[in-house]
Amino acid sequence: MKLLRILLLFVLFCAGTLDVHALADKIQLRWTNAEDAVMYELEVATVPIGRNQQAPQNKIIYQTTAVYTPGVELDLGLFSAKDINRLYYRVRPLDLDKNAVGRFSAPVALSKGIVNPLKPAPTTYVNKKVLTPLYPVYAWIPVLQAAQYEVEITDRAPENPNGTAPSRHRIRAYSVGAGFDYYDTQAFTEDGVYYWRVMAYDSEGNTIGGYSDAVSFAVQTGVHKWAVFGDSITHGGGAISNPPSDERFDYSSYLPFPVKNLGKSGDTAATMVERFESDVLPFRPQYLFVLGGSNSIRGGTTAREVIESLSLIKQKCAENGITPIFLTLPPVNPERIERVFNQPTAGNWQSELKQVNHYIKQQPYFIDIYPNLADQYGLLPVRYAQDGLHPDISGKKVMAHAVQAFLKKYKLK
Q: Mean per-residue pLDDT for 121-146?
């Protein structure tokens, strides 16, 4: 085994495809992303333990809850005294308070993991039934000992798969600090098939393996009958650690027809007005679901200013033959927002939000999602949004159900 690794190292080094530093003693484990998991509890034991069984402490040799992606890379030195062929792992999803929100997975032999992976593992894959968002998000399993990453975007399949040199087809590249995702800040408004891949670097700037496999995504402009427009609630993401690359957190993915997601995380009602021409018009939607103003209201912007912005969006829609369908603003949960994001919420947010929603309910087409997401105190319940702002999968399904009820009522064509 050792001789085989040395020979592999020699071949890769001579070929110039891999830095020697890539072959650290580690193992990569992966599993299915659980619904609304903030983090995962990982156990490695000397015996296979059933999904509903509590593990005997004397059988557990490694345990952690510091895993925020559906996979992890571990130092094999953690198991130096054990034969990995005789070890098993299992995981279960946890909420923000580390309470279990699902059962443990079935035990898997640790040896089923990838020993000394030569490339990062993307966790963003395109569902062909879901249109590529205007602002894609790229996500991956964190690479052990990585201090930063480079995300490369190309307009053709890279000619050097899993190498370390930039592709000649590169159109964008981003340097990303330690983490597991990157939100693209540049909209994709030109037709084509694109590819993204990621490579890791250590603290001294050495590559840790080569680029990941390239993941393709397609962009098509022109007429889209349906589109959604808004901030991060529209863009997607939720349960604190799940980025918009997981389409389950996109409420439009639950609708029975293709929808172009034109959401952008961080938007205010004012910035939605600013990017309307550049981001909406290339796709010429016939119907546009509009949900914007949450960031404005919680940040202290007055209802009057938000209404002015929404009125401008309505006007721009009319000028371009687009039918806007406004969604009322959902409530927020200031205590959870403070805990998760360390951000305050304007003290008068409820009265200002009420005024905005009153305006929205005067429009020809509107969908009132507020009452379906508010508790008796007018707050967003934790069961729908663990961070107090972004509805999780359960919350997004509530939103989609309201949209479907609207469509059934109006039968838009």
A: 89
